[in-house]
Amino acid sequence: MADEEVVVLGFWPSMYGTRATIALEEKGVKYEYREEDLSNKSSLLLQMNPVHKKIPVLIHNGKPVCESLIIVQYVDEVWRDKAPLLPSDPYQRARARFWADFIDKKVFDAGKKLWSTKGEEHEAAKKEFIEILKQLEGELGDKPYFGGERFGFLDIALITFYSWFYAFETFGNFSREVECPKLVEWAKRCTHRESVSKSLADPKKVYEFLLGRIAG
Amino acid sequence: MADEEVVVLGFWPSMYGTRATIALEEKGVKYEYREEDLSNKSSLLLQMNPVHKKIPVLIHNGKPVCESLIIVQYVDEVWRDKAPLLPSDPYQRARARFWADFIDKKVFDAGKKLWSTKGEEHEAAKKEFIEILKQLEGELGDKPYFGGERFGFLDIALITFYSWFYAFETFGNFSREVECPKLVEWAKRCTHRESVSKSLADPKKVYEFLLGRIAG
């Protein structure tokens, strides 16, 4: 498809924004990335996502698509010829959607308790967070990717949290290698992909960003 | 498709469970409905949705699909020949998914404040709830259905809240006819469909159920 204008409004540490760029990279779609200052949102962001006023927004030929998992599905449906992201089987599609929704409902909310709680509450938060990782590891099983032999929708949904793992692990005082070694191997496999390595924020920088936010 | 076994685990006042049965009715799929006692969940529910332990669950030939909007998409993808629910155009699909997600993020959380708050907080809750309705009415515009000329995915996502409107309106002390007349007309149109009228709980019974819960 020629003469297409594809713009992504994002914010560098966002695990949601990064999903949009990985999906576009997988499809080989050219796009312009615009970094948003969330303390001073652009008029374009407010105009394109008036309901939530949040990144990411994918703007395709002037029309906005909002919410990261909806963006990934949209990208998959528009650029169908290359790198299918969702499985073709309806049951497997439902399953991928279920676990992506699980990630959105659980991972960040549980993760942020790792730096916002102390004492017993922190111990409970750590236990909860590790349990979530183990549930995800259970869904991965012995497959190379959540998508099976192929990197796909659910891989994109989760790998963008990779940038946050150093922070989760450090604040949580646990070792991901000990707790979820298969997930660590999966993440390495994903980060070897150019689509992923180009898009992900540096985990140490995310940690520093977070320290700044906590202090600030 | 013959010899298929389709079971829905639901709970009569649930706006989420009802989405599954409306989708199946639209497609003309025969199914068995099993009412769950949420204070004493069946071993089948716990086995079929071990992650969230929630209704609705659609069990299709022994395999579970969980989360209501995922179920509706699954039903649409498996029984493709009749009554398409999601639009065929990717942009319109993304838009329908966006507003369905908006409903799930906003309507119930805002609605329950109508019976759990007092005074100024209640006034703010009422204002917030009416604003959400107006946003949805804006998306409907002058179309007969959210799906355009055809009843579809987003119509299913919202109409199941109809059973709760008497409660929202009574606790919120507002008139839906005054605040969102187009949405009222749309709802009437939807409830004339057999798929909807067969599935929806009686609004007065939902109100009484809620009074019992509040008292209880």
TrEMBL record, chains A, B:
E.C. number: 2.5.1.18
Boundaries of every GST C-terminal domain copy: 89-209
GO MF assignments: glutathione transferase activity
SUPFAM superfamilies in alphabetical order: GST C-terminal domain-like (SSF47616), Thioredoxin-like (SSF52833)
Principal cellular location given in the protein's record: cytoplasm
InterPro entries, alphabetized: Glutathione-S-Trfase_C-like, Glutathione-S-Trfase_C_sf, Glutathione_S-Trfase, Glutathione_S-Trfase_N, GST_C_Tau, Omega/Tau-like, Thioredoxin-like_sf
Residue intervals of the GST N-terminal domain: 4-83
A biological process from GO: glutathione metabolic process
Catalysed reaction equations from the record: RX + glutathione = an S-substituted glutathione + a halide anion + H(+)
Family matches, as Gene3D superfamilies: 1.20.1050.10, Glutaredoxin
The protein's enzyme class: transferase
Cellular-component GO terms for this entry: cytosol
Keyword Aminoacyl-tRNA synthetase included in the entry's annotation: no
PROSITE patterns (UniProt xref): GST_CTER, GST_NTER
Localization terms from the record: Cytoplasm, Cytosol
Family according to the record: Belongs to the GST superfamily.
Functional note: Is involved in the conjugation of reduced glutathione to a wide number of exogenous and endogenous hydrophobic electrophiles.
Record's protein name: Glutathione S-transferase
Origin species: Prunus yedoensis var. nudiflora
Native organism taxonomy: Eukaryota, Viridiplantae, Streptophyta, Embryophyta, Tracheophyta
